[in-house]
Amino acid sequence: MIRVLDEHERTMAFAEVALGQIKSLRQAAIPRNYEIWYVYATGYNSPLNKIINETLARNGKLTESDLEQIYETYLSQIKTTERIDKVGARVIGEIDDVMKLISDALGMSASYDASLSGATQKLSVAQNLDQVKGIVETLVKSTREMRDTNKALENRLTLSKAQISNLQQSLEAIRAETLTDPLTGLGNRKYFDRSIETAVQTAQANGQPLSLLMFDIDHFKSFNDSYGHLTGDQVLRLVGMSLKQTIKGQDITARYGGEEFGVVLPNTALRQALTVADHIRRAVMSKELKKKSTGEILGRVTISVGVSMLKPGDDTDSLIERADACLYAAKRNGRNRVICEADPEYAAETQSQVA
After folding, report:
1. What pTM was computed for the model?
2. Is the confidence at residue 136, as pLDDT, over 70?
């Protein structure tokens, strides 16, 4: 009983530290933030504690993007690894069971072969009908046993095939989760990095055009500061929904980080990409943001978009850098607009950066 009470008091102390941190830093008391601070309080995840301490020492606070990045890097990956390990252990267990069954069946087959060989020898020296009848009856019995063993093996293999197929689907689902941003349902940064690398290589190998859109939600911080992080999350979901409704087919959409998103457009030249970008911008702006708790109309969300197109000698970094520079130019020139690397605003931006 004393041990139980000690464990209760110990975990309650961790909980109090977690809630204390959330209160002092004025963060949303959502499960993700509580988990981060609870783990921090335990001290079991030293890399997490180190990055939190460094960030607080440098900035005096943890932003929503900081919390999201910490969770994705130091907590969600651990959970995913544990789930993969569990499924993997079940697959290995299933294979071990099947291998044992196959081993038993092979032993039965060897025994049956021995019975056949013995029966052949006995038949060759049998001297009367009763002896032949006894040998045949033994053979029939062995054959039935062999048939039953084979049937059991067949049934078990069929069941095992179905179970392994289900486990394979579970692994695929876990894999998909590791590449998906849970808030918006779009691809995450890992998915974006993998996908753009493949898309660039394919475009270069086939001599096809490829364009990239990088866009950012205008005044996103003010949504968080004015209405709270839950409303900020609603803004992110609204943009994610607009992207899903607008982007189809082979095009790649992802939440790049924080309030920034990326769209890779294979086999798309700059002029077409500008049309797509403006279509996305208009789709986002057409939706009215409403506070769920009160029904209050909070206005409309706008985005700024930068567009670049793959050039000879490009790699993914240079393509992203130009799109980012275009995005920054869009921000500097009034927001809620699309700017590409052929626009004078982009040229002015790059010149000011060099200067």
Report:
1. 0.58
2. yes
